[in-house]
Amino acid sequence: MAHKERLTAIRTEMNARGIAAYIIPSSDPHISEYLPERYKGIAWASGFTGSAGTLAITQDFAGLWTDSRYFVQANDQLDGTGFELVKLKVQGAAEYAFWLAEVLPAGSKVAFDGQSASLAVARAVEEAMGAVDIVVDGHVDLLEAVWLDRPALPNGPAYLLDERTTGESTVSKIERVKGKLRDKRATAHVISSLDDLAWLLNIRGTDVKCNPVVLGFFLIEETRNTLFIDTAKLHQDEQGRLAEAGIILKPYEDVFAAVRSLDAQRILLDPKRTCFAMYDSVPNGVKIVEDINPSTHLKAVKNEVEIAHTREAMLKDGVAMTRFFKWLEEHVSHGNLTEISIAEKLQEFRAEGKDFVDISFDTIAGYLEHGALPHYKATEESNATLRAEGLLLVDSGGQYKDGTTDITRVVSLGEATAEEKADYTIVLKGTIEGSQAVFPKGTRGYQIDAITRRPIWETGRNYGHGTGHGVGFFLNVHEGPHTFNPSNVDIPVEEGMITSIEPGLYREGSYGIRIENLVLSKVLESNQFGTFMHFETLTLCYIATDLVDTSLLEKRHLDWLNAYNAWVFEQLAPRLTAEEASWLKEKTKAVY
To answer: pTM of the entire structure?
Structure first.
């Protein structure tokens, strides 16, 4: 079916069930950012493939509500589908709910699938509709009725990591989580988020592209711990290892019945990472304690074993990036390279590294105006051919069994203009300011965001996305609870966190610039004024200097850039061929 036909099928089913409006969030029962194919309902219905958005469908209007990162992409992908782009004024806000409350008559019914909607979404809809006497039903999966070839749940294998890789046993991690539960006086806890489950149980899988996770739920009670999973994914030996850790295995689909029969006084659930259907399964006599999953905080602070492994992953990734950019420089003039083909080549270089598993997200290879789309992904229709001119932005990463990487670099494929150099240098200045920040313990991410943006703001420039996100250890490339963005998120930057620093600048229709490194939060010193922290840069890949306008940088910025590039050469050269090392030596020459 074409997208218009799919929209018609949804409306026909809505009409048969007396539903005036149907909402499809970008989510799954685990409130994941990256979804198994079965839960990509927005893409199936509308053609929009971005990772953030909500469809709201009535009989006379169908809209996609999404934020500024996806405006250009949404306009292109929604063309001719029957869906229209509705531009969010506030990122993440449930503006579609208030629109429905305005246009629907009292007594109407609004529905959504509670297994694919977070509690936050359900509450926003119920609040908006309750004020105008509109009925809400959060237990309707219309897609199951109209998506005739809907993919089944993934059934790829899962496996356990040993303590030499993770630095901590599953038993120890569970005890630490239980300690946090006791602090909250909670006697039960359901973990739905896949990366939390993966970290806690030292388990990895193949159920979601680019994210080494396995579908499952974990129920912690006072006297037992239960993993709900398709046991066919696990080898018998690994099932035995889980049993030795005191973990009972039950079928994946049994989790809701288990929650409905809970014998507990207080259950802790994370409202942002638990689906509405799970909340609705909690018996009336059980008090729900709403808080962030304890494992989310614990997972964000990497131990020394994880940090050491991550440094090794950065070395392998740096070798791959060096070989890629050398290859790109040597072949771009041939005229046969495209955005898709260079992304595939970069993956080939990464795959040569020991213990490479997958890329950590779909590579963003944005040439010229495509670089101005922060979440661009080349398609057969948009796939641009590279020429020996203009700017190329490459945002990519790898999943290795010893770490996760995420890096963005911009290179010029020809002679750069004065404007391109000025924009590049201002963004680089922001990256350096953020990387060099010294800050008191307890500093929040929005303060690091402001430090990074300051030199960009001073020139009357800005960017619409956050400055940084947490990164997992051989896990999701986007990891909470901390974040470096303007939002007033009350999570301190702690020692051991790995975070990106990635300011940018985008000129729609022309080019985009973003320079991203991963950094490790560390204590610098403690004195009479308190404890102060700083960042250690982990990412190993040269930063192009032919785009730098040195007149726009202070000496301390140039010193940082030269020291960084010299360090990159020193670390990577022993792993490169003589020819590759000679090429990198030239790229890392000091500038003044």
So the answer is: 0.94
